[in-house]
Specification:
With about 400 residues, this protein is mainly alpha-helical. Helix content is about 80%, strand content about 0%. It starts with a helix and ends in an 11-residue tail after the last helix.
């Protein structure tokens, strides 16, 4: 394997572990929180929501900071240090005896997970302009694989106790640090190195600075809208399928696994064919249009087997994210790639903070809190957001890459 390919493999493994790390611990979180804090499962769910929101808020705050640090000090040290801290964080979770220590680990975990921006910036560094969108698709594929493997492995390891998944996550993170130490070359040279400014690196300032690039402000807004709509799947899928089809947890898991595998296939391979055929602009238009149709279908489908068969097909809409990332990466200068990816990470984090709240409230209103019964109502909101996405995208002209 060539050095660049080994480095690329390390980046993909890092992103897969980020996705796995969250899913790996999900099966044991209710029991773990009850174990350290007492109370009912309902109380544990409240704390689970607090811990998840804390994690997302930290990602939002530190995404631009970590990305800007990698623009100044290099991708290699930021990635290796963050992975080392992540390994220690999992070990602390494995022995945590109070809810407040778990809360602290989620703060640290959210900061270390902000290295997604550095990992994607590394991909931008080593990818020629014409391959950026396709290579960003591999980022989505890595997350898809982690999304599938995490809960499965976590559920199996839970047979050995509530702490076993944390030890496994620590081992994987530690092993990846060792692998990265030997195979990861630095890509930030003096030519593209940029001085670090905390004033510029905070999320608001970073959004403002990156938003000054031609059309990137609108592309970021479009990215946020798309993520907000697409998060309907993890937000309400388990509730929606139980209410609408009476699915068991195993059936829900099967459908989510099918979805995750399909997302990995689409973003890891099929997107290259679509990009070659339609180009970045056509791919984004296709993805928005397809998502609109998929959301409308899921809002009204009543046959559980039709819904299950359609679940992997919905992954076709996942072509939008890497195409948008590729488009923005071409506009930003080489010395702004870390900052840009940090801002993109923060935009996703904001969607992850607010979308679940909106989607679950709408689900509640249309299943128990209003006179209209429609479990698929959250998908109608997502379909409406696709119309807004289309309107925003059609105002964006084609921009040439900004010279370094």
């Amino acid at each position: 394997m060539e050095p660049n390919r080994r480095a690329f493999a390390f980046i993909l493994i890092t992103l897969t572990l980020d996705a796995m790390g969250i899913g790996l611990i999900l099966p044991v979180m209710p029991d773990l929180i009850t174990e350290v804090n007492g109370g009912t499962v309902g109380n544990a769910a409240v704390w689970g929501g607090i811990l998840a929101t804390t994690f997302a808020v930290m990602q939002f705050i530190f995404g631009p900071i970590v990305g800007s640090l990698s623009d100044r000090y290099g991708r290699r040290p930021v990635l290796l240090v963050s992975l080392t801290v992540m390994c220690i964080d999992y070990l602390v979770m494995a022995v945590a005896g109070t809810i407040w220590l778990l809360f602290l680990t989620r703060i640290i975990g959210g900061i270390t997970a902000a290295t997604q921006s550095t990992a994607t910036a590394y991909i931008a560094d080593i990818s020629p302009p014409e391959k950026k969108a396709a290579n960003f698709g591999l980022v989505g594929a890595a997350f898809g694989v982690g999304f599938v493997l995490g809960p499965v492995i976590g559920g199996l390891l839970a047979e050995w106790g509530t702490r076993a998944p944390f030890y496994a996550a620590a081992f994987l993170a530690g092993a990846n640090v060792i692998f990265g130490y030997f195979v990861l070359p630095e890509t930030v040279t003096d030519r593209i190195r940029r001085s670090f400014s905390l004033r510029r690196a905070n999320p608001v300032a970073a959004f403002r600075k990156i938003g000054q690039l031609p059309d990137v402000g609108r592309l970021l807004f479009l990215f946020f809208l798309y993520e907000f709509a697409f998060i309907v799947y993890p937000s309400v899928w388990a509730f929606y399928t139980k209410e609408n089809f009476g699915w068991s947890p195993s059936m829900v898991g099967l459908s989510l696994a099918a979805f995750g595998i399909s997302v990995a296939a689409v973003q890891g391979g099929l997107i290259r064919l679509i990009l070659n055929r339609l180009g970045e602009r056509g791919t984004i238009l296709f993805g928005i249009t397809f998502n609109f149709g998929a959301f409308i279908f899921l809002a009204f489908v009543t046959n559980p087997w039709v819904a299950l068969a359609f679940t992997p097909i919905t992954a076709l809409g996942a072509v939008v994210t890497p195409a948008l990332q590729g488009k923005m990466s071409k506009i930003a200068r080489d010395d702004q790639q870390g900052e840009l990816q940090g801002v993109i990470s923060s935009a996703r984090s904001v969607a992850q903070i607010f979308s679940p709240l909106a989607m679950t409230q709408i689900f509640f209103l249309f299943t128990a809190g209003s006179g209209i019964y429609l479990p698929g109502a959250p998908f109608l909101l997502s379909a409406s957001l696709m119309i807004l996405c289309m309107a925003v995208f059609l105002t964006i002209r084609t921009v040439q890459p900004k010279p370094t």
